[in-house]
Amino acid sequence: MRHQHEMDVWRTTKLAPGTILMPGVISHATNIVEHPELVANVVGGADCGMGGRVHAEIGWAKLAALAEGAALGTKTLGGGS
């Protein structure tokens, strides 16, 4: 929970209408590939660029988990076929 302290900002910050937040749900700072269910019910993105912090194969596996989680979320929410 490295960024837990930043949650205080969201207690008082008002977002403009139509603003969409994309939380970083896959990390560039660890070699662990996130489970698709982690990202299934959010509009998620990478928390930062991969930028050589992880091996390319791990980076692609993380992006695949992001895509699989998005598909799972779409199916769960009834938006998929």
What do these coordinates show?
The protein is mostly helical. The longest helix has 21 residues, at 56-76. The chain contains three helices and two strands, in the order αβαβα. The mean pLDDT is 78. Helices cover 38% and strands 6% of the residues.
Strand order of the largest sheet: 1-2
Specify the number of helices. Answer: 3
Radius of gyration: 14 Å
Q: Estimate the strand proportion.
A: 5-15%
| Range of helix content | 25-40%
Low-confidence blocks of residues: none
Secondary-structure content class = mainly alpha
DSSP summary, beta strand count: 2
Q: Determine the N-to-C terminus distance.
A: 35 Å
Main pleated sheet: 2 strands, parallel
Shape: globular
- Classify the oligomer: single chain
Q: What is the helix/strand order?
A: HEHEH
Query: Could you tell me the mean pLDDT?
Result: 78
Fill in the keyword field for this structure:
2 strands, mainly alpha, 3 helices, globular, two-stranded parallel sheet, 81 residues, 6% strand, 38% helix
